[in-house]
Backbone:
């Protein structure tokens, strides 16, 4: 019944920026750790960034310094600001609510990010 609502994907030129949003109604958002994953065709899904309930962040080496994950607990929303985008960032990006606090994990439907000139 929990439905994560992702938005913000699209086509952008190398060096451009996009901001992904993921709204997570129906959960106790403030106690949950959140993450963004991505999967390119023919490749494994990989963790891009995560943010804990307390605001601690982690990033994959490939996006560190370019991407920023943040959250707005009042809106039950997690964001991924993506700057200096590269063609290798092209993938479907998935929002994830990590399991924890006695609750199961959830996945968003995915949003396509294409970086191409």
Residues:
């Amino acid at each position: 019944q929990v439905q994560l609502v992702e938005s913000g994907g699209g086509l952008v030129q190398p060096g451009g920026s996009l901001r992904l949003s993921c709204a997570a109604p129906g959960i106790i958002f403030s106690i949950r750790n959140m993450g963004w994953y991505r999967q390119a065709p023919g490749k494994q899904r990989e963790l891009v960034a995560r943010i804990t309930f307390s605001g601690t962040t982690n990033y994959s080496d490939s996006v560190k310094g370019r991407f920023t994950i943040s959250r707005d607990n009042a809106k039950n929303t997690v964001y991924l600001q993506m700057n200096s985008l590269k063609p290798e960032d092209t993938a479907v990006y998935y929002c994830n609510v990590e399991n924890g606090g006695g609750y199961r994990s959830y996945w968003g439907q995915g949003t396509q990010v294409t970086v191409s000139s």
Remarks:
- The radius of gyration is 13 Å.
- The chain has no helices and eleven strands.
- The mean pLDDT is 97.
